[in-house]
C-alpha cells in the first residue's frame, strides 16, 4: 500500500466515524444511494467533508451543523441536503427551536422567500420529535397592522420621516429644510 492509499484510507475511516456520529443512518442512506451511480463520489463525500472538515478540532459538531444548516438554507436549492442536516443537527444536540431560529436568521441575509421556502424542511421534525414552536409573527412587532387601507389608516401607521431623505414619486430627494 502506498502512502497516498494509506492516507486516503485513514481519511475514509475517519469520515465514516464522523458520518455515523453526525448523521446516523440518514448519512449512510445518501452514500448507499450513490453506490450504484457514482461510488467514487460517495467515497469523496466521506473523505473530504467528514474525514477532513467535520473531523477538525476548531468547532464542535453542534456549531458545524448550525453553519451547515445556515448555508444550505441560504442556498435555497438544497432541500434534500437541508433535511439530512436538520436531522444531523438534532443528532448532535440542537433543539427544534434552535434550528428554526437558524433558518429565520437566514431571512436577514438570504431573503424572506428563501427562509420561508426552507422552513418547510423543518416539518419532518415536527412529526418525528413533537410539536414545533408557534409560527413567527408575519409582521414586524413595531409596525401596527392596519385594519383597512383607507387614507386615514395609511398615514396613521407609517413613519412621518425616514431621516434626511424622503421617498417622493419613486425618487429620493432631500427633505424640506435640509440640504
Model description:
The protein is mainly alpha-helical. It has 2 domains: 1-56, no CATH class; 60-129, AhpD-like (Up-down Bundle), CATH 1.20.1290.10. It has 9 helices and 2 strands, in the order αααααααααββ. It has helices spanning 3-23, 25-35, 39-53, 61-75, 79-91, 96-110, 112-119, 123-128, 151-157; strands at residues 165-168, 171-174. Strands 1-2 form a two-stranded antiparallel ribbon. Helix 4 (61-75) packs antiparallel against helix 5 (79-91) and helix 4 (61-75) packs across helix 6. The chain is globular, with a radius of gyration of 24 Å. The N and C termini lie far apart (76 Å). The relative contact order is 0.08.
In short:
This protein is 62% helix and 4% strand.
Q: Using the coordinates above, name the CATH class of the largest domain.
A: Mainly Alpha
- How many distinct domains? 2
What would you report as the Rg, rounded to the nearest angstrom? 24 Å
Q: Can you tell me the residue ranges where pLDDT is under 50 for at least 5 consecutive residues? A: 129-168
What is the string of SSEs from the N terminus onward?
Answer: HHHHHHHHHEE
Category from helices, strands and their pairing: mainly alpha
Q: What's the name of the CATH homologous superfamily of the largest domain?
A: AhpD-like
What is the strand arrangement across the widest sheet?
1-2
CATH topology type of the largest domain? AhpD-like
Taken from the alpha-carbon principal axes, the silhouette is globular
Beta-sheet strand percentage?
A: under 5%
Number of strands: 2
* Distance, first to last CA: 76 Å
Question: Helical percent range?
Answer: 55-70%
Count the DSSP helices.
Answer: 9
**CATH architectural name of the largest domain:** Up-down Bundle
**Rounded average pLDDT:** 75
Largest sheet: 2 strands, antiparallel
Amino acid at each position: 500500500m502506498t502512502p497516498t492509499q494509506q492516507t486516503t484510507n485513514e481519511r475514509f475511516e475517519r469520515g465514516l466515524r464522523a458520518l455515523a456520529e453526525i448523521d446516523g443512518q440518514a448519512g449512510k442512506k445518501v452514500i448507499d444511494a450513490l453506490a450504484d451511480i457514482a461510488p467514487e463520489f460517495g467515497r469523496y463525500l466521506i473523505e473530504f467533508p467528514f474525514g477532513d472538515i467535520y473531523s477538525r478540532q476548531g468547532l464542535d459538531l453542534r456549531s458545524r451543523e448550525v453553519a451547515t444548516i445556515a448555508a444550505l438554507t441560504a442556498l435555497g436549492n438544497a432541500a434534500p441536503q437541508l433535511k439530512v442536516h436538520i436531522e444531523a443537527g438534532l443528532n448532535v444536540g440542537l433543539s427544534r427551536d434552535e434550528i428554526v431560529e437558524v433558518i429565520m436568521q437566514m431571512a436577514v441575509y438570504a431573503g424572506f422567500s428563501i427562509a420561508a421556502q426552507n422552513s418547510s424542511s423543518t416539518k419532518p421534525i415536527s412529526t418525528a420529535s413533537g410539536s414545533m414552536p408557534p409560527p413567527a409573527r408575519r409582521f414586524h412587532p413595531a409596525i401596527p397592522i392596519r385594519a383597512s387601507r383607507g387614507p386615514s389608516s395609511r398615514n396613521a401607521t407609517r413613519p412621518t420621516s425616514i431621516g434626511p431623505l424622503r421617498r417622493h414619486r419613486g425618487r429620493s430627494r432631500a427633505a424640506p429644510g435640509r440640504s
